[in-house]
Amino acid sequence: MSATPAVALDEAAEATHRLETAEHVTVTPLGNALGAEIGGLDLARPFTPAELEAVRAAIQDHHLLCFRDQHLGSDEQVAFSTQLGPLEVFPEQDKTKGESTVYNVANVSPEGEHLPVDDHRVIYQKVNARWHTDSSYRYIPSFVSIMYAIRVLPDGASGGETEYSNMLAAYDALPDEMKARIEPLHMVHYYEFGRRLFPELPPVSHHEKVHVPPTCHPLVRIHPDRGCRRSLFFTTNAGNEVSGMTMEDGVALHRKLASHVSRPEFCYKHRWRPNDLVLWDNRVLMHRAKGYDMARYPRVFRRTTVAGSEPILGPYSQAVEGKVRPLTAA
Predict the structure, then answer these.
(1) 141-159: string of b/e by CB count within 10 Å (b at 16+)?
(2) Strand partners, 88
(3) Domains of the chain: total
(4) Do the beta carbons of residue 245 and residue 253 sit within 8 Å?
(5) Which value, in Å, is the radius of gyration of the alpha carbons in the chain?
(6) In the structure, what pLDDT confidence band is assigned to residue 329 with cuts at 50, 70 and 90?
(7) What is the biggest distance separating any 2 CA atoms in the chain, rounded to whole angstroms?
């Protein structure tokens, strides 16, 4: 970015203020940790340049945005999503989806059949019940995920929410000794890890292996567009191995971090309503689906994902050299 971090943050706050003060537009925080509900915008029509700038700033400020009562078909959702950037092509060839950039997060087939709980497309949904950030298994992970609620659980039914955790806040709350310990570490991310969790899933196809080989990312992520703040960056559905540690020690550290990010002060749990559209910033949030009675309740969402633009930067990356001092050098 050409602006200094402080100026960039001021510009983001100003753009968010313009969104909040625009006629018929409201911004209501969803919780202390993250999230805002945006009212007064019809996502089926294109944003004006000012609206797009303000929505981008709101993503930066709140990390998650919820738009209620939207009415979007697949084409309208794609058109809305591409305003934020090019879309990822999903590697899966058979996961209840149609177009390569649209993913049906569902226990219902594209033909409308409520799938049995032992169908591998349903079992795969259980992988997403673990903390993760979408597309962490890519060399360049995603920017924003966008999910639209088509069929949700009825009022009174247990589960079915999506829970989010703020990785900026989770990192800030770590003890100094833990921050120093994880500063130089990386985690191995690989798409195939879900088969370890659920061996009954079919093997990863050649197509999937070619398109998403294993990759390694820093456990501590640096955000140049946020004044070089640090956040945690890991997942529990695409690996648990930490580079440079024994398997036993790496898994123990991974388990401790997963417990840490689950603390309520970092989290927001979204109870879905029909026609909700929720988008979230995968650079700073993790999320997980809450379990529900899959045999009893159909649940259908449509997801698009805006691609990231650059690899993850860690504290020792040359791209941030001179902008951030590693803790271990203090």
Answers:
(1) bbbbbbbbbbbbbeeeeee
(2) none
(3) 1
(4) yes
(5) 20
(6) very low
(7) 59
pLDDT, position 6: 43
Mean pLDDT of 279-289: 97
CB atoms within 10 A of CB 53: 18
pLDDT digits (tens, 9 = 90+) for 94-153: 554 557 899 989 999 988 999 999 998 898 888 889 999 999 999 999 999 999 999 999
pLDDT at 211: 80
CATH number at residue 274: 3.60.130.10
CA dist., res. 141 & res. 317, Å (int):
17
Fill in the amino acid letter for 22.
A
Assigned token pair, 297: 């309740």
SS (H, E, C) the chain: CCCCHHHHHHHHHHHHHHHHHCCCCEEEECCCCCCEEEECCCCCCCCCHHHHHHHHHHHHHHCEEEECCCCCCHHHHHHHHHCCCCECCCCCCCCCCCCCCCEEEECECCCCCECCCCCHHHHHHHHCCCCECCCCCCCCCCCEEEEEEEECCCCCCCCCCEEEEEHHHHHHCCCHHHHHHHCCCEEEECCCHHHHHCCCCCCCCHHHHHHCCCEEEECEEEEHHHCCEEEECCCCCCCCEECCCCHHHHHHHHHHHHHHHCCHHHEEEECCCCCCEEEEECCCEEEEECCCCCCCCCCEEEEEEECCCCCCCCCCCHHHCCCCCCHHHC
Q: Which of 103-112, 255-264, 278-287 has the lowest mean pLDDT?
A: 103-112
Estimate to the nearest angstrom the gap between the alpha carbon of 305 and the chain centroid.
9
- pLDDT at position 100, please? 84
Range of the domain at 74: 5-329
pLDDT digits (tens, 9 = 90+) for 30-64: 989 999 999 999 999 999 998 999 899 999 999 99
Q: Identify which of 165, 166, 206 has the alpha carbon closest to the alpha carbon of residue 288.
A: 165
CA 47/CA 218 separation, integer angstroms:
35
